[in-house]
Design brief:
Length: about 350
């Protein structure tokens, strides 16, 4: 009986299947300097190990609680790919996770990213990671590692998708949330920088599929191209929120992402209370009127899909509202009193918006 023969000659290779180990290694080498810029003193090693090590300075805390958050940038990455602009999408990635952490009062400590792509282009990957590092510097956290995965056959060569996980720490007694919110609290809204990273499937459907607008076309309302407006990176609020919590009696933060202002603020309003907000307190950025007008998008759909110009909300003691507004102004973040928290029936809506936005 003849034994089957196994050949290790000139057969199939990993590179032949579309995966380049060398390109991945080149990308890692390009990434290292960007990660190094973000290193906090607690980081114990650099990029390249099997795991990242971070020494938690437990002596600084009485009862430290770790917080974690994972998210991505959604289909905003499709706009970045179409524009061949990859240097800001990483800032969006950081914003999505660190500003979820700070919503409970946690200080972001470190972040790991995951980049999936059809084909590794070391220069493109390093540009994306440079943006992630910029975001980490804005947030005060370290980029300690991550993964770049090549998925030939599953993704087109130029396609990529981003995700990340961040870890933070907060004193147990300082955790913010609905259990701290009281009747009479004031609700302050902090301006978004634009659309941020939610609602891009609707944006692409309205502006690109239905209206067939060119991303490189100049838009008078924006003073720049449509693509540049849509790629405006998210504002990162973590540092200013942590500072605000030190200066004022903050009871809760709400990061305004998918679900809009009402949907996200409701997550920190307890049963039996209601946040009563007035749309006349602020004017949405022009991009929201642009989307609504070209898609005949109903107001209710706009408000549950987009941030409408409010990227973060603070719920705090009424006596501290003036101090909070002054501090945010000093930090160059436009902010407004949106309304107050009042008693309500147990089955009442947690958030109610009244009035109409000026000039929208």
């Amino acid at each position: 009986m003849t034994e089957p023969r196994t050949s290790f000659g000139s057969g199939a290779t990993y590179a032949g299947s579309g995966v380049s180990i060398q390109a991945g290694e080149d990308a890692v080498e390009r990434i290292k300097p960007f990660a190094g810029k973000t290193a906090r003193p607690e980081v114990m090693d650099g990029i390249g190990g099997f795991a990242s090590l971070f020494r938690l300075p437990v002596e600084k805390y009485r009862d430290p609680i770790l917080a974690s958050s994972s998210d991505g940038v959604g289909t905003k990455s499709a706009i970045a790919q179409a524009m061949e602009t990859h240097n800001t999408i990483g800032i969006d990635l950081v914003a999505m996770v660190v500003d979820d952490l700070v919503a409970c009062g946690a200080e972001p400590l470190f972040l790991q990213d995951y980049i999936a792509c059809g084909k590794i282009d070391p220069e493109k990957i390093s540009t994306i990671v440079a943006g992630i590092a910029d975001g980490c510097l804005q947030a005060g956290c370290s980029l300690v590692g991550g993964e770049t995965a090549e998925h030939p056959g599953l993704m087109a060569p130029d396609d990529y998708d981003l995700a990340s996980t961040a870890v933070g720490v907060v004193e147990a007694e300082a955790i913010l949330g609905p259990d701290r919110v009281r009747p009479g609290d004031v609700v302050i809204g902090m301006s978004s920088s634009g659309v941020h990273s939610n609602g891009y499937s609707l944006i692409r459907h309205v502006l690109l599929d239905i209206n067939r607008l060119p991303l490189d076309g100049h838009v008078e309302e924006f003073g720049r191209s449509l693509g540049e407006e849509l790629l405006e990176p998210c504002r990162i609020y973590s540092k200013v929120c942590l500072a605000l919590a030190q200066e004022a009696d903050v009871h809760a933060f709400a990061h305004i992402t998918g679900g809009g202002l009402a949907g996200n603020l409701a997550r920190v309003i307890p049963v039996g209370l209601q946040a009563q907000l007035d749309r006349r307190a602020w004017t949405p950025l022009p991009v929201f009127g642009y989307i609504a007008g070209r898609g005949r998008v109903p107001k209710v759909e706009m408000e549950k899909t987009f941030n409408m110009g409010i990227g973060m909300v603070a719920v705090l003691h009424a006596e501290d509202s003036d101090r909070a507004l002054a501090m945010l102004t000093a930090k160059h973040i436009p902010a407004w009193v949106l309304g107050t928290v009042e008693k309500a029936d147990r089955d009442a809506e947690r958030v109610v918006l009244s009035g109409d936005h000026p000039r929208f």
